[in-house]
# Entry
Amino acid sequence: MVKDKNKNYYQSLSRNMILSTIIVSFTPMILVITILLQQYQVSFYEKTNAHLNELVQKHKQNIDTFLTEKTANIRFLAMTKDYETLNDDEFLQRKLQLLRNDYGNVFVDLGIVEASGLQTAYAGPLELENVDYRNAEWFQSAWQKDSYISDVFLGLRGTPHFIVAVRQNENGREFLVRATINFNSFNSLVQTLRLGKTGYAFILNREGAFQTQPAMDIPPDPDGISFLWKAVEKTRNKILITRWTDDTGEADLYAAGSLKHGQWLLIVKQKVSDAYADLRRMYYLALVIFVIGAAGIVFMANYTTRRMVRRIRKTDREKEGMNQQIIETGKMASIGELAAGIAHEINNPVAIMVEEAGWIGDLLEEEDFAEGENLKEFRRALTQINTQGRRCKEITHKLLSFARKTDSTLKDVQLNDIIREIVDLSSQMAKYNKVSIETRLQKTLPYITASPSELQQVLLNLINNALDAMEKTGGVIHISTKISEIEPGTIVIVVEDNGPGIPDANLSRLFDPFFTTKPVGKGTGLGLSICYGIINKMGGKIDVQSAVGKGTRFRIWIPFQQ
Amino acid sequence: MMTTSYVMLVDDEVPFVETMTKRLDRRGLKIISASGGEEALKKLKENDTVDVIILDVKMPGMDGIETLQEIKKIYPLKEVIMLTGHATVETAIEGMKLGAFDYLMKPCDIDVLVAKVDEAAKKKKSHDAKIEQARIDKLVLRRGYD
# Structure
C-alpha cells in the first residue's frame, strides 16, 4: 500500500516536472517562431507586390509608348505629305522601306483608304490594292476618330494583326492612312515577361479576348475578367494587385494595369503557390526546426526528469533507511537500559536467596542436625540452590555486559570476546532450533577500534538470520576469526551455516533496505542493510556467498590497529 | 586466629544484612549493621572499635562512594571492602582509587568474604600496631631526652 502510494508520488512528480519543462521551453519557441514568420510574411508580401507593381508599370509604359510611337509615325507620314503624293504605291513602298529600316519588321504594310472604304494605294507583301473596307469593323471605328488602334483580329489575311489608322482631312477631302503592325513584334513585348515557373503576361480587351499570345493556353475566366476590369477602373490608372480563385479552386495572383486609354488590360498572372514559394519554403524550414526542437525538448525533459527522479528516489530511500537505522539503534539502547535495570533488580534478591541458603548450610553444621536422617538431602538441595543462584548471576552479568555496550562510542575491542558473548546469548535460542554454534577463533587477535554494541548488532543479526533459515531443519553455525590473508591489515570474521541457502536472484539485493523474504510483519528487511552500513562505517567490507541447499557464508573484514 | 575483628556491614537490603550478620557472626566476627550511609557514620561515631566496613555501592540516599569518602576522611585507618553488583564494577574500582581495600561482587561466597575481611583486619591492625609502636617510641624518646 505504502509502496503504491510512493510510486504514484514519483509518477506525478515526474509528470509535473516533464510538463513544466515542456511548457516553459515550448512557449518561447512557439512565440519566437510565430512572430518571426508573421514579420517575414508581411515583408515578403510587400516585397512581392512591389516587384509586381514595378514590373507591370514598366511594361505598361513600354507598350503604351510603343503604340503611341507607331501612331505618331503614321500621323507624321499623313501630315507631311499631301494626298496626291501619298496615294501612290511606289511612294508608300519607299516609306514602308524607310520605316522598316528604322523599326525593323514592326510595320507589315501601309495603305491609303478613302471615305468609301476603298483602299486606293497599298504597299506590302499582300495584294490588297482596291480592297473595300467599307464593312470592316476597324474602318467604321477609325473613321470616327483622328487616330485609331484596332484590337487584334484575323481580318482578310487570316493571321492575327492589328491596325493603326490616322484620319487626315485635306481641303475637305478625308482619307485614312493605315498601317498593319506585326503581331509577333508586338507580342514579344509581353511574352518576354515571365515570373517564376507559372508567371506570364498577356493583354485583354474589354471583351476579354486575348490581344497577345498567352504563354499558357488557358481560356480566360469571364467572371475573373469583369472583376479585374472593375477593380482596375476603381484604382484609377494605378496598378492593381489582387488574388482571384478560379473555378478549379486554384488561387492566382493578378497584377493588372490598363493600356491604350483604358481599352486594353495588361495582366500578369502567377499562381499564388509559385509566387509565394519562398515563403512556403520558409514555413517548411520553420516547421522542421520546430519539430526537431520539440523532439529535442521532449526527449531532454523526459531524460533529465527521469534521472532526477531516480536520484531523488534513491536519496529518499537512503534517508528512510537511515531513519530506520537510528530507530533501531535507539531501540537497542533502550533494550540495553531495560536489561541493566532488570539485571540489577534480580541480582539483589538472588544474593539474599543464596545467603539464606548459606545460612541454612551453616545451621546444618550444628550438632542437633548432624544425626538427621535427611541431612544428605538437605545438603544436596542447598548445593542446588547455590548452583542455580550462581547461574542467575551469570545470566544477569551477561545481560549487563550486553547492556553496557549498547552505545555507539568507539572503544578498543577484542573481537573474540564480543563473539563469545554473542554466542553465549544466542546459544539458548539455537538449542530450541536444534542448531549448534561452533567457533574457531584465532588466539591473539589484534585490537580493533569499533563500537561494541554495533559489532554485537551485526553478529546478532547474522546469527539470527541463520537461525531463522534453519528453523525447521536444524544445523550448524560456524563462526571463525583470523587475520585475513586476502585483505591485508584486516581481521576476517566468517559466519557460515549449512541451511537452505539463498537463491541467486535474491543474492544481489540482499543488502538493499526493505528487502526481505520473511512474511509481512516478521522482518523489516533492514537487518542486513544496517549491518552493511555499520561495517562500511568502520572502513570494513561484508560479502555473501551462497549455494542453494548447501548453505550461506557471510564474510566480514574489519581493519585492525597496526 | 588473631583477636576478634569488629566489622560493620552497610547495605540497604535488610534481609541481606540480617542473614549476613548471622553468618559472619557464626564465623567469629563481631558485626555491627547499618542500613544506609548516614546510619553507618552515626554508629561509627558511637563505636570506635570497628576495624573493617563492608559497604554496598548502590544505596538510596547517601551512596557507597559518598559514604566511603566520608569514612576515609574521618577514619583514615579503617579498611573498607566495597560490595557491588555487576553493573557497578566501575564504581567499585573508583572506590578503590579513593582508598577502599578491595571489592567483591554480589552474591559472593561467604568464605571469600571472610578471607577478605581477615586480610583487611590484619592490615588495619598492623597499621594500628605501627602507630602504637611509634607513639611508644616517641614517648620513650621524649622521656629519654627529658
User: Anything to note?
Assistant: The first strand of chain B starts at residue 6 and ends at 10. The CA atoms of residues 9 and 33 of chain B lie 5 Å apart. The longest helix of chain B spans residues 110-145. The radius of gyration of chain B is 16 Å.
